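agent: user wants the full assembly modeled, not chains individually. Plan: 1) parse entity lines 2) check alphabet per entity 3) run joint structure prediction 4) return tokens. Steps 1-2 passed, two entities, 637 residues total. Proceeding.
--- entities ---
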Amino acid sequence: MEPGTVKLSALTKRFGDLVAVKSLDLEIPAGGFFSLIGPSGCGKTTTLRMVAGLEHPDEGTIEVGGEDITRRPAYRRPVNTVFQSYALFPHLSVADNVAFGLVEERRPRTEIRTRVAEMLELVQLVGREHSKPAQLSGGQQQRVALARALVKHPKVLLLDEPLGALDLKLRKELQGQLKSVQRRVGITFVYVTHDQEEAFSMSDRVAVMHDGLLEQVGTPEDVYRKPATLFVADFVGASNRTEAVVEAALGEGRYRLRAGDIGELPAYGPERIAEGTAVNMIVRPESLRLGGEGYAATVADVSYVGPAKHLELETEALGRVQATVGGDERAAVGDRVTVSWPAEAAWIVAGDSPDPPNEAHSPTS
Amino acid sequence: MKLRRHWFSGLISLVVIVCLWAPLVIVAVNSVNKDTLLVSWKGFTTHWYNQAYHNPDVRGGVKETMTIALASTAISLVLAVSGSLWWRRAGHRSQRMFDGLTYLRIMLPEVVFAVALFLLFSKIRFPLGTTAVVIGHVVWNSAYATLIIQARVATLDPALEDAAADLGANAWRVFRRVTFPGLLPGIVAAGLLAFTFSFDDVVTSYFLVGSGTAPLPVVILSMIRFRITPEINAIGMMVMLFTVTMFTVGFLAVTRLGRGARRALALPEGRD
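--- prediction returned ---
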């Protein structure tokens, strides 16, 4: 196994009566940017803290690079963390903060100096060596926290919502920087956030957690376009949902559905859904098209966000649907339009509990 | 809006200030007064200082007071730091019990503890003297120190200790490099306070000193029991000078340690 691989097996953590993480199985490939996303309280931060050694699992094992580190104390693990609050040592200068971990390793002074300087250059903080953390801006503090963790050359870097406290513009900027730092150092990044957009823009793979359970793992595109559960579908973006029954499985993930008033609908979905199964069909708002052949609809609401327009459409067949169209599209409240979508944009979610579970974990197959 | 100064409140303040400081001024003046009876000004002298300086009772008292104050402060700080760190992670009920016991040591009259310890020590045949006094002082001194250090502990971000452990520091190193520096302003403030309280304590010391060397406040008390000599004034001035110097130095050290220190001393926030 590569040194930067993280493998969690049947990992469980309870806080009193609350089960924060329920028998989590997850393999995080080495050298990539991996995000754990989910709403607050879903167990993502607890999972991260267990990998760091700051929480101790009740059951299960944690392996890094094939080595079982479940029982190892935090200070002897080959992983380092960037904390949500940055947790910079207020009494130490920027340089001493970054040097902290190397001092604990009892590295020679000259080596410490060179490595700290290198790291400060990487995060563009040259010249601020002697500042105290309180004298830095939020973005700079965040970069000190990153440098302090990376300077130890960990096999895995854990990031716990490190951009949560920053304003939107700075977040975007730092997202780009984080991503490029990850490419340069080639260390496995495990990133925890509740912001799916942030996770999608940076990650090679994302895992969605909900109530301590893993809902889905995959590339951002898979998770968005082929959600395994209704929870994932809702969490990663808006969607239009219709209840339907599988009428015929046509092979290779193609199906024909029958939905109450609408009639027959072509759709795609995970393989091996039995005919007659009650399912949900989802279509993302941006897949809807106006005009041409389609369902008759009335524009009920328009909100203009610059590059796009979000429309609320009232249809007889589908009820209320959301559509996101180009900002140039002409649509005003009360307009009568037609709405349609390409068959490949319709995705089937088989109920709320994904079955079989192993398929939910690898929707890329 | 401009606040008008009121002549009455001004007058009250003046009276208060005069009443508070007049005795000290008299002590200062008389400490260099040649008049043995302290009734009129008979000229300047340093004789009383000289006499106090060479008085073996006073010298022994100072040494004894210093020993007791340093020992009880050190012990109180250790108890306060370890207690506060335990308190931070303790359950809610344990915390309340701990707080109750701390407040009780401050609220109960000192004389109650002094008598209780006196009786206890007699009962178990623990010898009265320096050690007994130190124990007596620790009873309330550790409570004051705990209050100050607890306030400081509550401001410590537990994530800092997580971060230190994450960066490779074991439990001792985390304390040494992160927790202790974080508590330092509180420790200095608590230490200064405890030292001063111990330094001028009479009640506890009086009960527990036995036949050993008396600490300075007890020495002074027994000196004035017969007659107020000008020497007392000189001693008073020297004690005052020492305390003020110590506090000033300590205060400067604490403010140098940062804004958190000011919070620990409950002083207004200002610029660094």
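agent: reporting back. Residues 51-221+228-264 of chain B form a domain with the MetI-like fold fold (CATH 1.10.3720.10). The longest helix of chain B spans residues 56-89.
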